[in-house]
Amino acid sequence: MTAEALKKLKTAESEKISHIDYFNIAISVDCVIFGFEKKELRVLLIKSDLEEFADKWSLLGDLVKIDEDLDSAPYRVLRQRTGLEDVFLQQVGSFGAINRHPSGRVITTAYYSLINIRNHKLKITDNEVHWHSLKNLKDLAFDHKQIIEVCLQRLRIQIMDEPVIFNLLPEKFSLRELQDLYQAILGIKLDRRNFRKKIALKKWLDELDEMEDDVPHRPGKLYKVKTGLKKNALVEIAGKTK
Amino acid sequence: MTAEALKKLKTAESEKISHIDYFNIAISVDCVIFGFEKKELRVLLIKSDLEEFADKWSLLGDLVKIDEDLDSAPYRVLRQRTGLEDVFLQQVGSFGAINRHPSGRVITTAYYSLINIRNHKLKITDNEVHWHSLKNLKDLAFDHKQIIEVCLQRLRIQIMDEPVIFNLLPEKFSLRELQDLYQAILGIKLDRRNFRKKIALKKWLDELDEMEDDVPHRPGKLYKVKTGLKKNALVEIAGKTK
DNA sequence: TAGGAATTGTGTACAAATTACACGACTGCG
DNA sequence: CGCAGTCGTGTAATTTGTACACAATTCCTA
């Protein structure tokens, strides 16, 4: 940043006036929370209560507080709005088109989160919060559809090399469930034998001595993530491994 | 964003008071400008003229203006500070630790840029601006060292699949130059025969009927990027292909 | 002008990963 | 008891990755 810009910044701070020139851009975070249910990838949305977006759905977000790190804000949002703690979160990008927000200039930083819908029953049962299938998404508020799209792209890339996908599954799962999940995320069908071979190659999983017991067909073996394997990405965008 | 937060936002806007609660986070952009010279990857830095960082180097950056898109700001910064136009720029991530800026709360969005040092002679010869080798980088202002590190990681991934690397080279170049550049970015040596095979496979280049004429050894063939091939990444982080 | 230094241009053998593809066995259910 | 749905498994063909060597060209210098 230039010295000139900084001087103005300091002046504005010390005099507590004229903030309009340098502080009238608000910054928010928005969370793209993915879940997996009934063989579909879903995203958690909230009914927008903003007039301009009456009846449209939007991401969970909030303004960043003056005394919190940017990367901490989405954790707070998730905790406050859904009761979710200890979730996988990763910064994806920032969106700041001039007119993206009807009420003023707001730049938002988007994060994506992966949670297991069954484990993390929403504790704060705000009945305006719902899981939506990624198909047929429409009428989203702001630029939230675009944000979801970018997060989905990131997710698709990340599941190929890093064991983040297991954040979407229960502790024990079958290879079929895992394959269904990959297929839902990638939007393509995978060959079953090749898929199993590839997963075996990655050495992420331990085979259990248990079988599925809730399926209307021959049950498959259950697996769990290897003890000690972090289900987070190895490198966070901000360089900080949680 | 919640309705509650938005109401506060609107109140703050209409009354033009109390901005301190919602608008006292400033937002900036910082550019990590990579160049290639003498077989080394370099980054363009400016002497920080901020007291707290006397004699330290920093990235080129500026506060985002109220009437410019976030993604437009780094183009402006480059134009104003170096005279560079029409360069490759890509958003990498946002950095917002509470205390990252000594003068106040500033969240910054980092972009990386690839330019050809020779073609783009810095038009604004601000003698505080210099190219630095990526080795021996130290004493950078703010969190700029970390930002550069994250941008470098992004660059390393991106050059494997997308033809962005050619932004760093002149129009005509030899395969040796290209290999030297890959090696400088990746920090490893590559096998020459395998490298050439791999590049050929990508079909990014056209072979010219010209040879190098400025080397103290047997000259190699010159190549150029295939006509029509965009040297940008296929997908920008914000989903917008420039 | 001959020899040395540096680099060009080229191919093959082996290992590893990717893809396409089929069948018998098991379980629940009607 | 038979059908529907899924499990568990292997091989052959192809593509990709890796390791590795030698003769030819050009410049430079002694």
Helix tally of chain A equals 6
> What is the element string of chain A, with H for helices and E for strands?
HHEEEEHEEEHEHHEE
* The CATH C-level class name of chain A: Alpha Beta
Coarse structural class of chain A: alpha+beta
CATH architecture descriptor of chain A: Alpha-Beta Complex
Mean of residue pLDDT of chain A?
Answer: 87
Bin the helical content of chain A.
Answer: 25-40%
Radius of gyration of chain A: 21 Å
What is the 3D shape of chain A? elongated
Query: Termini of chain A, distance in Å?
Result: 28 Å
Largest interface: A-B, 56 and 56 residues
Topology (SSEs and partners):
The structure is a homodimer of 242-residue chains.
Chain A (H helix, E strand, L loop, with lengths): L2 H13 L3 H4 L3 E12 L2 E8 L9 E2 L1 E4 L9 H10 L5 E8 L10 E9 L14 E5 L10 H18 L11 E2 H12 L5 H11 L2 E7 L9 E5 L17
Parallel strand pairs in A: 1-6
Antiparallel strand pairs in A: 1-2, 1-4, 2-3, 2-7, 5-6, 8-10, 9-10
The first copy, chain A, binds a DNA duplex (30 and 30 nucleotides) through helix 6.
